[in-house]
Amino acid sequence: MWRPPQRIRFSSSRGRVPSSSEASASRLFSPIAIRDCVLPQRTWVPAMVPWRATEDGFVNDAVVSWYERFARGRPGAIVVEATGIRDVPSGPLLRIGHDRYVEGLRRLTSAVRAASGGRTRLFIQLIDFLAIRRRPQPSKYFARFLRITESHRRALDAADWPEDEVRARLAALDEGALANVLTAREMESLRFGYRERVTDLDLPHIRDLPRALPDLFAEAATRAETAGFDGVELHYAHAYTMASFLSRSNTRDDGWGGARAARVRLPLEVFARVRARVGEKFVVGCRFLAEECIEDGGTVEDARFFAAAFASAGMDFLSASRGGKFDDAKQPDRADGAHRTVFRLQLRSQNLHNRAHLPGVLNQVIFFIDANRRECSRASHRMTVVSKSSIEHFVIEMARDMLPHSDST
Ligand SMILES: Cc1cc2nc3c(=O)[nH]c(=O)nc-3n(C[C@H](O)[C@H](O)[C@H](O)COP(=O)(O)O)c2cc1C
Questions:
Q1: Which atom of ligand 1 is nearest to the CA of 361?
Q2: What's the mean pLDDT when you consider all of the chain?
Q3: Measuring from atom 29 of ligand 1, which residue has the nearest CA?
Q4: Are 245 and 135 in contact (CB under 8 A)?
Q5: Of 149, 258, 391, 395, which has the highest C-beta tally within 10 A?
């Protein structure tokens, strides 16, 4: 068996295996209905991209067998990996941005249904993302990618120099000197690679996102329905387009950024368009961030506001995640951050349910909002069912679990 080359520094204990009567009495293994869609139990496999699709985004044997393996364990739900809503090259990431993807996706839903004996509900995560390029070699960055501006020339006192000379001079500067010549954005492109942002309003396709995205998501959702999925999870988390609209760093001044109410507008419009296009029974929820984990990023206060807005708009479930994906995201401190949080939740799960250790489902909390939206339940740890009006309270409680210095037990 392949083993990672690095030393394994942390090993988790397996915990006590519950008896079958304890397990079957637990809320985790009891059914829950989302609209007409019944999960026979509340175990939930979150979206994970294993990069197994074909280079042009189609389902292949490797994708089918990956999900069949999960389905044989008969979890209540599987969320198929983040799947691109546009028909653009994106390597071996699944795509749903054109009708030609439906056939492969239908093969996937049939395979999961067969492997789980019809006991696993299948959702698919819909994602939009902006352009991101790898960190360039500095020589290439200065020779090709950087656009030379008047500001560079002024800083170098090089008003009349041929462009090649300006480039060569920049390439010879050390990082400290460069910081005085390049803009913060140019430094970022040099250090991390070029990234588009939802705030790049000078780019027409970025300015146009609020007009384009609701239809793109809605068309993808109708394809998911045609392919036999039970519902969709709108990807509003991590560092992708929709999370960037929700982010505190979204300073767009065109009505789609700034205050929370403006930042949540597009996610709500996307949801409304999706909901309007799919059938009554089709489940629609989202994944969003309980905390952004970046400098000056969104906190649980933002998450509370968004959760309440999503619930009021009629989303069927909310899946809370944490943090981003970029290398400038704050890394949680091993002692104080996410790892301790996971540990705390594991302990909680064992204490409260006296049940099996549940690796893999513990640092996220799923909220289900029932069809008439009177009650919700938290699926992945305490499983409390309380009234929907307490959804803000839920998010606070959830966040308390996720935050490092919680005193609650
Ligand atoms: C390989 C891999 C791929 C992932 N892909 C996605 C994804 O497509 N969408 C998403 O929302 N989260 C994704 N995640 C995050 C997981 O859904 C999950 O939230 C995360 O792994 C934390 O749970 P864990 O501690 O049980 O691993 C991915 C995680 C891994 C390890």
A1: 26
A2: 80
A3: 48
A4: no
A5: 395
364 pocket-lining for ligand 1 (C-beta < 6 Å): yes
In this predicted structure, what is the pLDDT of residue 266? 98
Q: Does the beta carbon of 322 sit less than 6 angstroms from any atom of ligand 1?
A: no
Beta pairing partners, 37: 34
CB contact set of 176 (below 8 Å; sequence gap of 6+) = none
How far, in Å, from the CA of 364 to the mean position of ligand 1? 10
**pLDDT tens track for 230-251:** 999 999 998 899 999 999 999 9
Q: Distance, CA 239 to ligand 1 centroid (Å)?
A: 13
- DSSP state for residue 18 in the 8-state scheme: P
The reply to whether the predicted model has a pTM over 0.90 is no
Q: Which of 39-43, 72-76, 377-381 has the highest mean pLDDT?
A: 72-76
- 237 Cβ inside 6 Å of ligand 1: yes
Q: Does 15 score more than 60 pLDDT?
A: yes
Q: Whose CA is nearest to atom 30 of ligand 1?
A: 48
Average pLDDT (181-198) is 86
Domains in the chain and their CATH numbers?
20-132+201-402 (3.20.20.70), 138-192 (no CATH)
Pocket of ligand 1 contains residue 360 by CB under 6 Å: yes
For ligand 1, is residue 49 a contact (CB within 6 Å)? yes
CA distance 183 to 151: 9
The C-alpha atoms of residue 280 and residue 213 are separated, in whole angstroms, by 22
For ligand 1, what atom is nearest to the CA of residue 321?
19
Spell out the long-range contacts of 163-168 with Cβ–Cβ below 8 A and sequence spacing 24 or more.
Answer: 167/142, 167/143, 168/142
Tens-place pLDDT, residues 330-385: 444 443 343 333 333 333 433 333 333 333 333 345 555 543 333 333 333 333 33
